[in-house]
Amino acid sequence: MHIRLIDIAHARSGDKGDTANIGLIAREEKHYPILKKYVTAERVKSFFGEMVKGDVERFELPNLGALNFLLHGALGGGGTKSLMTDAQGKTFAAALLRMEIDIEETV
Amino acid sequence: MKEPIRIASGQGFWGDLLTAPKMQVTKGPVDYLVMDYLAEVTMSIMQKQKKRDPSLGYAKDLVPLIADILPDCIDRNVKIITNGGGVNPQACAEAILASARELGIKGLKIGVVTGDDILERMDEFRSQGIEFRNMETGEDVGVIADKISSANVYFGAFPIVDALQQGADIVITGRTTDTGLTLAPMIYEYGWKEGDWDKLAAGTIAGHIMECGGQATGGNFSADWKSVPELENIGFPITEAYADGSIVITKHEGTGGLVTQQTVKEQLLYEIGDPGNYITPETIADFTTVQLSDDGPDRVKMTGVKGKPCTDTYKVSMSYADGYTAVSTLTYTWPDAFEKAKAADTILRKRLENLGLKFEEIRTEFVGVNACHGHLVSMPDHINEVVLRFGVRGKDFKMVERFGKEIAPLILTGPPSVTGFAGGRPKPSEVIAFWPALMPKNAVTPNIIIEQI
Q1: Is A29 on the interface with B (CB under 8 A)?
Q2: Is A2-102 a CATH 3.30.70 domain?
């Protein structure tokens, strides 16, 4: 089936220098394996495309049903250097929740 | 021994809701009020203020705020812990003492933690062989040595514990970790020590949940923002800490907002790196060991937290000036709002080029279309209004300033139905860049001063 991440996850994002972090959290326990299987670091990197200059790292928190992504080089230099409206990456969480995926499972 | 102790978050940043601390102290029982004031950029702003006036360099609005809640805190035996002392915690303490005297308060003890500000000691440390290499790039600090505008060591909870042990009712610090403010009362009350890694980690993670105030209690909540009741009256988070390291996150009854596993999880994930290795001066906390459970309405219990031994280094954050930016906006309306904004962008870029102005970066955004989500959004068929947001960054102040004079002329010499230039010419603002580094813990010692009236 075809879903958007916002249907099965919620998220919060913020900054550390020029790196944005996105905490992606399964809405229900059964959604976590889907996030883990489909929302890979590579997929997030290609989803954001030119918005992320550096690598994307992914960390797993099965205890919270959550994934943490670090998007390096995503904030136009970060802090007071950045010319971006969203220099602190606050809306990157919502941006990731736009992602659409085709899954074998049903939710 | 009192158990549990209740620690209330009063401010999540310098500029947070000014009514929150009073609510925390008066709407129900709490033992400690902790207030976090310091973002990285704050330290360099405070250094500038101190340079202009040696009696400044701290969060000035902390003084009337504490004066307002102090009688209640004394009545209810609530101790206050804050890092709002910035780069001049002693002056901050003096100002608070002066206002306490005016209120006729006697017997008040303020503990001041200093020693974190190493700006004047950089040469001394470098001559000892401390390199302060950039943690991210590996570069030698020599590259920025002549333009450092602030340099602070991140102390943790233990200097605050020291002040509490000396009887302080209020503890004012400089650069202390956000998490250390919440952890300190637990160490003090329960006698936790270096080596109690799991308990120190539990208190640290509680501090992480508390450090952004209302973000743990329904503010900025993405899971279901419409379900959060009474945000106008949001209750800030309260940590109930137990001696065994178990923690309950809650808020006062009768306040707005929401505490659920979802609100707590969003804050747990906020601005962290590797969740298995959250490094503080006290321990390395492992967020992958956190177990959350429901514990009644607006109560979430946290157990199972594991910690690892602390490192032998402190983090140091230095700031330095690194050029200038200026940003300005214009608003275009129907008809052809988006086309007009794009045309104005093209005209402006050509004019800057004709003037021979050079910048490190020029950035155009269309607010209302895709300023935040870029290529991820599909273009709407019809745009009523759009804000053209145009910014430049460069090392040359004069060029950045000259750019600012090119915005208003676009109103009379560019596409029509444009407005919104009420703010005047954009002034160049200084770029503050950061240099994160490490230094050996044994090279620097926190100082505790107790002042009493």
Answers
A1: no
A2: yes
Of A63, A70, A79, the CB nearest to B289: A63
B422 pLDDT above the threshold of 80? no
Whether residue B24 sits in one domain with residue B165: yes
For B269, the closest of A68, A80, A94 (CB atoms) is: A68
Based on the fold, state whether residues B384 and B246 are members of the same structural domain: no
Token pair of A85 as six digits: 């409206």
As for how many domains chain B has, the answer is: 2
What are the phi and psi torsion angles at B149 (to 5°)? -105, -15
Chain B within 8 Å of A86 (Cβ-Cβ)? yes
B237 and B364 part of one domain: no
Q: Compute the distance between CA of residue B193 and CA of residue B243 in angstroms, rounded to an integer.
A: 12
Q: What is the per-residue pLDDT across B292-326, written as a single tens digit (0 to 9) for each?
A: 999 999 999 999 999 999 999 999 999 999 999 99
Are B291 and A63 a contacting pair at CB < 8 A? yes
User: For residue B171, what are the contacts with CB-CB under 8 A and spacing of at least 6?
Assistant: B79, B80, B81, B82, B110, B111, B112, B113, B160, B163, B164, B184
Q: Are the CB atoms for B329 and B367 separated by under 8 Å?
A: yes
Quick check: is B443 in a domain? no
Residue A5 distance to chain B (closest CA, Å): 12
Q: Which residues of B touch A77 (CB under 8 A)?
A: 361, 393
pLDDT confidence of residue A5? 98
B143, part of any domain:
no
The verdict on B304 and B288 lying in the same domain is: yes
Q: A interface mutation test: which of B144, B217, B271, B375 has the most A CBs within 10 A?
A: B271
Same domain, B218 and B191: yes
The answer to whether the beta carbons of residues B9 and B57 sit under 8 Å apart is no
Domain spans, chain A: 2-102
Give the distance from residue A72's alpha carbon to the nearest chain B alpha carbon, in angstroms: 11
- Domain boundaries, position B307: 5-116+154-311
Residue of A53, A56, A58, A81 for testing the chain B interface, max B β-carbons within 10 Å: A81
On whether ipTM exceeds 0.85, the answer is yes
Please check whether residue B132 lies inside any domain of the structure.
no
Full strand arrangement of the beta sheet holding B247-250: B291-294, B300-303, B247-250, B238-241, B5-11, B32-35, B79-82, B170-173, B109-114, B447-452
CA gap A92, B419 in Å, rounded: 29
Residue B124 placed within a domain: no
Q: Do B374 and A93 touch (CB under 8 A)?
A: no
Residues B111 and B233 in one domain: yes
Per-residue model confidence as pLDDT tens digits over B46-98? 988 998 999 999 999 999 999 999 999 999 999 999 999 999 999 999 999 99
Amino acid identity of B149? S
| Dihedral over Cα of B187, B68, B155, B9: its sign | positive
Verify whether the Cβ–Cβ distance B266 to A17 is below 8 Å: no
**B240 with B287, same domain?**
yes
